[in-house]
């Protein structure tokens, strides 16, 4: 077994925070907002991907790694085709056409003035170094063009009064073009004359659109075309069409109910006459479907990726998917397994939490889930998913390094016991497009709350006392939607929501009472509240649309503090004095418990929109932004990995000690076990349970303990696991 040792150097936190410059902690692998639209494998090892802002990537090892090429343009590239590893073309917006003869080292721009400047090139095919075809289109017109001189000059073969999306050839002269609807399918048998195929019968389902986004000719007779699908506009299965006569007629391939997908399919690719794959996605994440019978039946694969895949391509059993958020995925065995090639996808971070141990979690749009184990020095990325869905993560809450919860769109609520390695469903997702969870907070392993929107203008609170096995539901209380829920003690909690509504509880959520607001300007009387943070047992700050509020009685009454020029999404406090509230172009800091605020935003460093903040125990903010950017003013913490010796059973001294009101307890175990940690007073009476029978893997672990509600004094905390027991003292000073 490899032995490693983890040493933290220079970790010193001070209670008084001096001004520190902002530094970038995390950035996406590819520029923020990158979308990949098309890919092509020129050989077993060499391939290319193109996308917006003129991006072109190249692989020389079958898609395991990708290098950025200099395209010389900043326009969106929608199509790419290579005749061999060296000779290739890329097409895009504003009639952009690029050609390379040296494997992408340099690209030459070719004029295509025969089409309008607003036309974009969506498909390219070359039979040899001279003869080729391409399609170009605006939103209302399309053109099929051909060249006989390697792309230097082009002529229009056919004009079509519909938008065109894709083109594919089985061999020279045998091609199909698809576009805006099922009636926009054109085919050629000789490469000269193009014929419009009759629209297939799609009346079995209530389609409101019939866009055909991609086509693949398996041979000169057999082809598959894919396109529109939607559950947001009613249950409209993803369109899959098949032809056996070269495109002359088409049949809708109706799938069994359990295998139907309801999102757009943007790309289809076949490795042989039987085995193919189609990719796409929508508001519930990526979809990948696979066929092994030539396109008659398709089975969805659980890819667990939130991004939409716009391109699927490959060679042999190796498949590549590429799409939004700069995502590239790869499977070496035709979909049986997969790997996220993009190390850090670029998606908006809606929620961020830093723990005392230096573990940082961040999550957000498209189900993105980011984790650092070492104060942000290194990061890993994944997606929060369940079954076949990967919706947005709107809020996360971690009890410790391993156990956390994620509240998602479409009511999905999930829990991890292993730091995000896997997730279990506590509340399943729904197809209802107006049902969402926006906030989550668990007091302990068993007792927790999730809040959000049950339907349009209908709020909802979910409560569990058994770790999510059963739930009590309350809805339509006071708000259109609840946006956040927080607790300062097991009994005292606050919920905030839209239309300047808030609830508070003093009995652990058994009852919720409507809060009152004082001195709020008339212009803000219906302001939406987005987040709330406790400073201590009774004091809390809430923020929202151009408003900051403060309570000193546990949320019963709220006093107007200040207005802002922007929507504030998130608020977090390091202690009862230092806190932060953030929104687009705004990072507000308070050092007096939320009475006064100063904007410390630095536009020279932070270029992205800001959505979330978490303050560490040293008083430093960690902010989550669009495109997976994270910034902080905290000093860099050095982390070195040396020879790690598997720890023995050990309970460490809590830190800080004395503490108020939160402290961190570290323990190590040499083997997997069910851990219980309890707190007792000096008379031996149990006053709190931190962990109760929770399974931990071998290694070092951290848990947090809040002493809110307890009197100042000396307490005992005890670790019990696998027959081992150890007890230490800690001091709580209010």
TrEMBL record:
<feature type="domain" description="Secretion system C-terminal sorting">
    <location>
        <begin position="655"/>
        <end position="731"/>
    </location>
</feature>
<dbReference type="InterPro" id="IPR015943">
    <property type="entry name" value="WD40/YVTN_repeat-like_dom_sf"/>
</dbReference>
<dbReference type="InterPro" id="IPR026444">
    <property type="entry name" value="Secre_tail"/>
</dbReference>
<dbReference type="Pfam" id="PF14870">
    <property type="entry name" value="PSII_BNR"/>
</dbReference>
<dbReference type="InterPro" id="IPR028203">
    <property type="entry name" value="PSII_CF48-like_dom"/>
</dbReference>
<keyword id="KW-0602">Photosynthesis</keyword>
<keyword id="KW-0604">Photosystem II</keyword>
<protein>
    <submittedName>
        <fullName>Por secretion system C-terminal sorting domain-containing protein</fullName>
    </submittedName>
</protein>
<feature type="domain" description="Photosynthesis system II assembly factor Ycf48/Hcf136-like">
    <location>
        <begin position="484"/>
        <end position="563"/>
    </location>
</feature>
<dbReference type="GO" id="GO:0015979">
    <property type="term" value="P:photosynthesis"/>
</dbReference>
<feature type="domain" description="Photosynthesis system II assembly factor Ycf48/Hcf136-like">
    <location>
        <begin position="18"/>
        <end position="155"/>
    </location>
</feature>
<dbReference type="Pfam" id="PF18962">
    <property type="entry name" value="Por_Secre_tail"/>
</dbReference>
<dbReference type="GO" id="GO:0009523">
    <property type="term" value="C:photosystem II"/>
</dbReference>
């Amino acid at each position: 077994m490899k032995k490693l040792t983890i040493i933290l150097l220079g970790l010193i936190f001070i209670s008084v925070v001096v001004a520190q410059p902002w530094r970038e902690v995390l950035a996406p692998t590819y520029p923020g907002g990158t979308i990949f639209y098309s890919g092509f494998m020129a050989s077993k090892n060499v391939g290319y991907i193109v996308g917006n802002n003129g991006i072109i990537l190249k692989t020389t090892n079958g898609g395991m790694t990708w290098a950025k090429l200099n395209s010389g343009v900043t326009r969106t590239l929608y199509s790419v085709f290579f005749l061999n590893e060296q000779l290739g073309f890329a097409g895009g917006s504003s009639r952009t056409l690029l050609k390379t003869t040296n494997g992408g080292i340099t690209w030459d721009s070719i004029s295509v003035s025969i089409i309008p400047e607003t036309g974009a090139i969506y498909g390219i095919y070359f039979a040899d170094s001279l003869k080729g075809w391409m399609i170009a289109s605006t939103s209302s017109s399309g053109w099929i063009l051909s060249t006989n001189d390697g792309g230097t000059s082009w002529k229009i073969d056919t004009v079509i009064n519909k938008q065109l999306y894709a083109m594919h050839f089985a061999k020279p002269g045998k091609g199909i073009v698809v576009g805006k609807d099922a009636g926009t399918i054109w085919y050629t048998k000789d490469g000269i004359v193009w014929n419009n195929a009759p629209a297939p019968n799609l009346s079995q389902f209530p389609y409101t659109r019939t866009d055909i986004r991609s086509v693949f000719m398996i041979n000169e007779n057999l082809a598959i075309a894919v396109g529109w699908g939607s559950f947001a506009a009613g249950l409209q299965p993803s369109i899959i069409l098949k032809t056996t006569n070269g495109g002359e007629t088409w049949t809708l391939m109706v799938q069994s109910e359990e295998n139907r997908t309801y999102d757009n399919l943007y790309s289809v690719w076949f490795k042989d006459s039987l085995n193919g794959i189609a990719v796409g996605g929508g508001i519930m994440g990526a979809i990948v479907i696979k066929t092994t019978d030539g396109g008659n039946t398709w089975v969805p694969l659980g890819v667990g990726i939130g991004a939409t895949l716009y391109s699927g391509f490959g060679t042999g059993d190796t498949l590549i998917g590429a799409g939004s958020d700069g995502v590239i995925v790869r499977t070496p065995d035709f979909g049986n397994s997969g790997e996220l090639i993009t190390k850090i996808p670029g998606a908006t971070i809606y929620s961020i939490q830093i723990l005392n141990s230096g573990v940082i979690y961040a999550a957000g749009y498209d189900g993105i889930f980011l984790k650092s184990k070492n104060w942000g020095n290194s990061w890993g990325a994944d997606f929060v998913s369940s079954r076949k869905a990967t919706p947005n993560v709107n809020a996360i809450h971690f009890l410790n390094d391993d156990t956390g919860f994620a509240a998602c769109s479409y009511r999905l609520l999930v829990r991890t016991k292993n730091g995000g390695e896997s997730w279990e469903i506590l509340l399943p997702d729904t197809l209802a497009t107006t049902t969402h969870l926006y906030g989550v907070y668990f007091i302990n392993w068993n007792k927790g709350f999730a809040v959000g929107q049950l339907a349009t203008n209908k709020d909802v609170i979910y409560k569990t006392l058994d770790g999510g096995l059963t739930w009590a539901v309350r809805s339509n209380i006071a708000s259109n939607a609840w946006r956040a829920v927080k607790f300062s003690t097991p009994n005292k909690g606050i919920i905030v929501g839209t239309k300047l509504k808030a609830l508070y509880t003093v009995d652990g959520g058994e009852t919720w009472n409507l809060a009152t607001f004082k001195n709020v300007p008339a212009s803000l009387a219906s302001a939406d509240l987005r987040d709330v943070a406790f400073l201590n047992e009774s004091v809390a700050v809430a923020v929202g649309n151009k408003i900051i509020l403060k309570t000193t009685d546990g949320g019963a009454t709220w006093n107007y503090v200040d207005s802002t020029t922007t929507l504030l999404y998130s608020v977090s406090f390091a202690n009862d004095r230092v806190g932060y509230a953030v929104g687009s172009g705004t990072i507000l800091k308070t050092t007096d418990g939320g009475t006064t605020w100063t904007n410390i935003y630095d536009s020279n460093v932070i270029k992205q929109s800001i959505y979330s903040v978490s303050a560490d125990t040293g008083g430093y903010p960690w902010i989550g932004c669009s495109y997976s950017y994270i910034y902080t003013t905290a000093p860099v913490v050095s982390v070195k990995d040396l020879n790690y010796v598997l720890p023995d059973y050990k309970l460490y001294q809590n830190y800080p000690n004395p503490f108020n009101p939160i402290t961190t307890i570290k323990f190590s175990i040499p083997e997997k076990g069910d851990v219980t940690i309890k707190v007792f007073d000096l008379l031996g009476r149990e006053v709190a349970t931190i962990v109760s029978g929770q399974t931990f893997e071998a290694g070092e672990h951290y848990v947090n303990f809040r002493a809110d509600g307890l009197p100042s004094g000396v307490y005992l905390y005890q670790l019990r696991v696998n027959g081992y027991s150890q007890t230490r003292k800690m001091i709580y000073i209010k």
